[in-house]
From TrEMBL:
Membrane topology type: Multi-pass membrane protein
Keywords noted in UniProt: Glycosyltransferase, Membrane, Transferase, Transmembrane, Transmembrane helix
Gene3D superfamilies: Spore Coat Polysaccharide Biosynthesis Protein SpsA, Chain A
Ranges that cross the membrane: 252-273, 285-311
Pfam families noted in UniProt: Glycos_transf_2 (PF00535)
Domain of life: Bacteria
One GO MF term: glycosyltransferase activity
Main location per the UniProt record: membrane
Protein name listed in UniProt: Glycosyltransferase family 2 protein
Length: 338
């Protein structure tokens, strides 16, 4: 198999050769947007402030995930007016994880990618703090949510999910951290080469390894507009986490099967003993019905669990590209990085 990473992969993150040129930013800030026209002006203002204040050469990669409002038009104007922005337009709505993957693939940063949400729930101003950790030699600096300014239900659901995931996952998933992170160029390169179709980026990021660390932060409320993740989309993300990063469900089915078999055997033995020693065979119609219904349910769940894996194999074997890019707007002659 060909190596997944470039030859500079063994260099510690901080010892990378200094290869920044006029057209190569050091940092790419990557933010996917879906119907974010309301938060867009806020986002651009905050990103501009971060880029203006930073001594680093920064580009901002914005991805339009098939928005239906005028997000795309706003992005177009911006990319044409400001050379620090690279705007990628997907052919339709693919979902946050895929949009993010598209953005990561387009990012040209030589040093690191800073991944944020487009609704400003992840403050872009934290770049300096994250970058400092990166300079200390960490390849992945992920954000750990200390407080979330979201509903009680959402907070509890997230907290329990992360704890559940951590207990069943075969990669070391940090608690309470989402996609908000700074990842080194080499980690981004590895992620780019991971072809999995049902993406759970925070899990894939852990899988890559190298030195990783967390920084605590308070997750803000979204700056404007409604959340774009529906309950269904969140559930899909959770399923991608569970089924792509754990063997637990399928093992559970086997264990459940063995347990059932064990109980059935004991019951069988008990019946035989009763029959031969006491001549007392139970009537047990209700019990029979109950057992049939119970295990039909268990079997259906088991089938469903197996189905989840089969479905993932099915989608993966199609080998389709993850997304289709409609257009990329970025300026070729870049002066702003002077
Ligand atoms: N998003 C996207 N495609 C989608 C749904 C969401 O690109 O299909 C973007 C959205 O514009 C936002 C980020 O992903 O910038 C996070 O979405 P959202 O705020 O709805 O999720 P939440 O913060 O509620 O988990
Ligand atoms: Mg949000």
């Amino acid at each position: 198999m060909s190596p997944l990473v470039q030859k500079d992969v063994f260099l510690p993150a901080t010892n990378r050769p200094f290869i920044t040129t006029l057209s190569e930013p050091q940092i790419s800030i990557v933010a996917p947007l879906y119907n974010e026209s309301q938060s867009f002006p806020h986002l651009v203002a905050r990103l501009n402030a971060v880029m203006d204040a930073s001594p680093l050469a920064i580009e901002a990669v914005l991805i339009d995930d098939g928005s239906r409002d005028d997000t795309a038009a706003l992005m177009q104007q911006l990319a044409l007016a400001d050379g620090r922005y690279q705007c990628v337009f997907l052919s339709r709505n693919y979902g946050h994880q895929i949009a993010l993957s598209a953005g990561m693939a387009s990012a040209r940063a030589t040093e690191a990618l800073f991944i944020i949400d487009g609704d400003l729930q992840d403050p872009p101003e934290l770049l300096t703090q994250f970058y400092q950790k990166f300079q200390e030699g960490y390849d992945v600096v992920y954000a750990v949510r200390k407080k979330r300014k979201e509903s009680w239900f959402k907070r509890t659901a997230y907290a329990s999910f992360y704890r559940f995931m951590r207990s069943i996952s075969y990669v070391d998933l940090p608690l309470d951290s989402g996609d908000f992170s700074l990842i080194s160029r080499r980690v981004a390169d590895v992620l780019k080469q991971m072809p999995e179709e049902s993406r759970f980026i925070r899990g894939m990021r852990s899988w890559v390894g190298f030195r990783q660390t967390g920084i605590e932060y308070e997750r803000d409320a979204r700056v404007a507009g409604e959340p774009k993740y529906s309950f269904k989309m969140l559930r899909r993300l959770a399923y991608n986490g569970i089924f792509n990063f754990s063997e637990y469900p399928i093992k559970l089915v086997t264990r459940l099967g063995m347990l059932t078999l064990g109980v059935a055997l004991l019951y069988f033995i008990q019946t035989i003993i009763k029959k031969y020693f006491y001549g007392d065979v139970p009537q047990g119609f209700t019990a029979l019905l109950f057992v049939i219904i119970l295990f039909s349910g268990v079997q259906l769940i088991a089938l469903g669990l197996i189905g989840e894996y089969v479905l993932r194999i099915f989608f993966q074997t199609k080998g389709r590209p993850l997304y289709v890019i409609k257009e990329v707007i970025r300026q070729q002659q870049r002066q702003p990085f002077l």
